[in-house]
């Protein structure tokens, strides 16, 4: 293999960089009854938005809902080995690594957790759903592709959620960088969920996916991607992991 001088690492956030799902976690901590509704509800995305609004209304009086939510996120599981691993990669002189976060969580949740973990400077770019804190202390969420703001629906056929096609977002990130004359000898994608399958299909032979085991991505790679079988449509290499300590090990010893 040719020498790798520059690489891009793309991180999904929930259950990949972080050791939990941000949306579910805040309900588990602050409103378990709503968490139950979320689990029983099939239309997860629509319901989640409704539940977010109800959660904010039901939080204790006298405290800003956004403060309660941020405090819950600050105690969300985040593996120390992941912190060590990404720090190691970021500080390494060769290859030089660019960090890109591609997440279906939202900007406020991600910023809050990165700050708590001392990783505010980690990412060169974050693409996620828009969020802001209102004057009333509520968290206002908007989808990445926002019909109310004139957002054009994506045409992905792989099954991405309406609010974001992660494959399109990765392609756009790479296109913008290439326009500036920047290319990557290798792309490493760290993901776990079924919505990470679309971007992983766009990876090249010299690229690598670090796929978390026992979650949606692994199944799609094997069933739809026919991973490891003749005629597989997965072009990149695949390494599997279950615990963040294994990601740290890969970063330090196997890349
Ligand atoms: Mg995930
Ligand atoms: Zn897609």
TrEMBL record:
Cofactor names: Mg(2+)
Keywords carried by this UniProt record: Hydrolase, Magnesium, Metal-binding
Chain residues that bind Mg(2+): 12, 14, 192
Active-site residue list: 12 (nucleophile), 14 (proton donor)
Superkingdom, natural source: Eukaryota
Keyword Magnesium appears in the UniProt entry: yes
InterPro entries referenced in this protein's UniProt entry, alphabetically: HAD-like_sf (IPR036412), HAD_hydro_PyrdxlP_Pase-like (IPR006384), HAD_sf (IPR023214), Pase_PHOSPHO-typ (IPR016965)
Protein name per Swiss-Prot or TrEMBL: Phosphatase phospho-type
């Amino acid at each position: 293999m040719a020498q790798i001088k520059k690489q891009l690492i793309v991180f999904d956030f929930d259950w990949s960089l972080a050791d939990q799902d941000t949306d579910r976690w805040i309900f588990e901590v602050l409103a378990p009854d709503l968490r139950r509704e979320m689990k029983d509800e099939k239309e997860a995305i629509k319901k989640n938005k409704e539940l977010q609004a109800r959660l904010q209304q039901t939080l204790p009086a006298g405290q800003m809902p956004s403060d309660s939510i941020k405090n819950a996120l600050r105690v969300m599981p985040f593996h120390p080995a992941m912190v060590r691993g990404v720090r190691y990669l970021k500080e390494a002189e060769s290859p030089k690594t660019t960090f890109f976060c591609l997440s279906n969580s939202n900007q406020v949740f991600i910023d809050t957790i990165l700050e708590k973990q001392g990783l505010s400077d980690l990412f060169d770019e974050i693409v996620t759903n828009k969020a802001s804190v209102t004057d009333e202390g509520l968290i206002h969420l908007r989808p990445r592709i926002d019909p109310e703001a004139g957002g054009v629906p994506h045409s992905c056929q792989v099954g991405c959620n309406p609010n974001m096609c992660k494959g399109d977002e990765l392609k756009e990130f790479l296109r913008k960088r290439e326009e500036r004359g920047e290319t990557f000898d290798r792309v490493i994608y760290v993901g776990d969920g079924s919505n990470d399958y679309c971007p992983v299909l766009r990876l090249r032979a010299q690229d690598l996916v670090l796929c978390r085991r026992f979650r949606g991505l692994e199944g799609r790679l094997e069933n739809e991607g026919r991973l490891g079988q003749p005629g597989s449509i997965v072009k990149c290499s695949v390494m599997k992991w279950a615990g963040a300590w294994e990601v740290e090990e890969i970063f330090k010893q196997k890349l």
